Amino acid sequence: MKQKLLLPALIAAIAFTSCNGDGASSNGSTDTTVSTTTTNSTDTGSTSTGPGTSNAGATTTTGTPLNEADQAFVRKAAMGGTMEVQAGQVAQQNGQHERVKAFASMMVNDHTNANNELKQLATSRGLMLTDSVDAKMQQHMTAMQKMQGKAFDKHYMDMMVNDHSKTIADFEKAASGANDPDLKAWAAKMLPALKMHKDSATAINKAIK
Predict the structure, then answer these.
(1) Which residues make Cβ contacts (< 8 Å) with residue 104, sequence separation at least 6?
(2) What is the pLDDT of residues 24-79, one digit of tens each?
(3) Rounded CA gap, 166 and 200, in Å?
(4) What whole-number distance in Å separates Cα of residue 8 and Cα of residue 192?
(5) Helix ranges (DSSP H) in the chain
(6) Bias category Low complexity: which stretches (predicted)?
(7) 3-state secondary structure of 128
(8) CA-CA to 10 of 20 to 30 Å: which in 28, 143, 145, 196?
């Protein structure tokens, strides 16, 4: 009689041990996945739900990491965009001609939006961007802050014509040759606005001579 009672209990104990073993294996696998995702992604925060979405945490990697050429373009474009915003803010304060100030306002708005889009794209590929410029650009910004009136207007508009010519060349190259399809599409999308900026800068530059 005792043997009959012990047999079901023994089977239940074996089954219980087997289930716990599977659970431990599953949890171990899940923990490894989380660890790998955290290490390879940019953050441990919430996941982005698309362009324009703002989350309290950072954005997890959702695409293939950018190759070296694409990363170089992204960093250069981000720094250039930051410079455009900072220079535009200075121009709004130090500029004299109303067309210069209006152009500067457009630069701040357009490049702030472009910078935000680029930052989100880069973050989704595991590349973090900063809102700072290099030492050379910072020295230029400091020098511009000391300029006033017509001298500032001329310097700023000359700068805008030259910078946008170089930027357009970089974006045309990325729009045709970037490896990442989303980055390629973003560069192509930005080109019409950049060309419009250059045309406006050229016209204003001639008008204030």
Answers:
(1) 87, 88, 89, 90, 91, 92, 95, 156
(2) 333 333 333 333 333 333 333 333 333 333 333 344 556 789 999 999 999 999 99
(3) 16
(4) 77
(5) 2-40, 68-94, 98-124, 135-145, 149-177, 181-207
(6) 25-65
(7) coil
(8) 28
